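4.2 Preliminary Data

To establish feasibility before requesting continued support, the project team ran the inverse folding procedure on a target of 452 residues. The structure was first converted into the token representation described in Section 3, and no sequence information of any kind was made available to the design step. The complete token record follows.
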């Protein structure tokens, strides 16, 4: 779960990437970075922190420099959400090295399921690692490849790796963008001023007023230089398996992901939920921001008034972002407050996108009880999350996933609601239909790739 962005040669490449990353900030708030290629010279700014903090005046001035070539600079950028790695700055991306054929920058969203195995093999051959990122494995494999051009080296490298990923590379004056063969992680192509731009989500294109052109296809390797695109499909095709959690929780509401509007998909999930799990209630409220569209869908289908019963502070990040339980608990209180006038003595349907560990819902129920709510009917707009993600979404181990080891009644008791219901797998499938082939391993346990 990270955001990636790239511009294939533009005088304003650094500024456009800064804006693009800003529109992808919801995909990761721990670190932000950008690498710029200017006629073989690399400029790089990679730090911990939000996009607005990392790219201050000084950083942007440095990155902008004065691109020497007529083509202007090429950039790749990254916002990082920690997964299995620790917090160290070394794990912030893009990673940038100098190897036999010049400078190489890599930024990646996702994870390789055989990361450990490939890293061990490389270490046995003497490779030295500076980070715990999947991207560094790619760099080593590219550097070891015998191929004459970076795109061929990348193809050789990816042949050793399995997983769910979207990736951008900068080398030899080219921006290379690729997705795994299943299309698990998202990546789209856009154009601005005739120049190719890539972004994890369309929201990155919208902000810089680039036109959306198309998704990068699963397994496609795009070599981009200015307005030129060369496309390769070196691997055997696989069944499309786009990550459903993008639509459940992760992507921004105004994005089109996998050719399907996130807002509309979430509304459909909410509407399906209301049809299968109706309840007599006075008001429907969302858990902001993740439950908003599903709550609108639920309220419209159930013909129950929609209200804002919980207010979210916009000065705290997503609850999960701090990976320590103590901070996460505290975060819920910091983040949400109850509107008594909406809730007092009412029968309330509370709609959220998912329950992972059950910590958030429990806090919310207790917050609502202290605001004087009459009844709390918790409705979750996805099926129970019972399996960890191996493709970059930060879900904890199975042992920590509350629905993996507790019945519906037990989860309801744990969170303290009067009733609890999840969207059924069938309702979920219908809501996700337009995405045309998705990965639901987190709810079904059916993983599209072979696992180690
Ligand atoms: P909890 O059940 O306390 O673990 O938290 C579940 C809530 O966190 C959900 O309502 C989502 O809004 C949000 N959430 C779900 N998955 C993630 C994730 N991978 N990263 C950050 N937040 C998440």
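Position-by-position output of the design step:
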């Amino acid at each position: 779960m990270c955001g990636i962005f790239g511009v294939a040669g533009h005088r304003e490449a650094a500024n456009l990437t800064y804006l693009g990353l800003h529109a992808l900030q919801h995909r990761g708030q721990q670190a932000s970075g950008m690498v710029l290629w200017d006629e073989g010279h690399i400029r790089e700014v990679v730090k911990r922190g939000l996009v607005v903090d990392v790219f201050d005046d000084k950083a942007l001035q440095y990155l902008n420099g004065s691109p020497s070539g007529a083509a202007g600079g090429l950039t790749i950028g990254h916002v990082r959400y920690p997964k299995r790695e620790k917090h160290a700055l070394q794990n912030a991306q893009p990673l940038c090295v100098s190897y036999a054929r010049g400078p190489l920058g890599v930024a990646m969203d996702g994870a390789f399921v055989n990361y450990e195995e490939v890293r061990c093999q490389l270490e046995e051959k003497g490779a030295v690692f500076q980070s715990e990122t999947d991207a560094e494995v790619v760099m080593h494999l590219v550097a070891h490849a015998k191929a004459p051009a970076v795109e061929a080296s990348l193809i050789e490298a990816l042949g050793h790796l399995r997983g769910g990923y979207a990736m951008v590379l900068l080398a030899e004056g080219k921006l290379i963008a690729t997705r795994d063969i299943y299309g698990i992680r998202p990546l789209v192509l856009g154009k601005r001023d005739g120049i190719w731009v890539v972004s994890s989500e369309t929201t990155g294109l919208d902000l810089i007023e680039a036109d959306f052109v198309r998704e990068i296809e699963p397994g496609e390797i795009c070599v981009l230089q200015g307005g030129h695109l060369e496309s390769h499909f070196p691997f055997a095709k696989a069944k499309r398996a786009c990550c459903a959690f993008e639509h459940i929780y992760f992507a921004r509401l105004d994005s089109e992901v996998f050719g399907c509007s996130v807002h509309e998909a979430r509304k459909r999930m909410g509407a399906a939920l209301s049809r299968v799990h109706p309840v007599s209630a006075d008001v429907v409220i969302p858990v902001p921001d993740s439950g908003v569209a599903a709550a609108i869908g639920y309220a419209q289908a159930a013909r129950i008034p929609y209200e804002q019963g919980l207010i979210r502070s916009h000065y705290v990040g997503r609850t999960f972002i701090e990976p320590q339980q103590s901070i996460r608990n505290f975060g819920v209180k910091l983040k949400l407050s109850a509107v008594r006038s909406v809730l007092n003595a009412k029968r309330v349907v509370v709609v959220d996108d998912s329950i992972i560990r059950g910590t958030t819902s429990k806090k919310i129920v207790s917050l609502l009880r202290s605001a004087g709510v009459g009844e709390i009917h918790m409705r979750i707009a996805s099926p129970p999350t019972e399996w960890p993600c191996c493709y970059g979404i930060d879900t904890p181990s199975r042992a920590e996933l509350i629905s993996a080891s507790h019945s519906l009644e037990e989860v309801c008791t744990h969170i303290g609601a009067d009733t609890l219901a999840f969207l059924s797998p069938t309702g979920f499938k219908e809501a996700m239909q337009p995405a045309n082939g998705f990965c639901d391993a987190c709810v079904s346990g059916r993983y599209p790739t072979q696992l180690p």
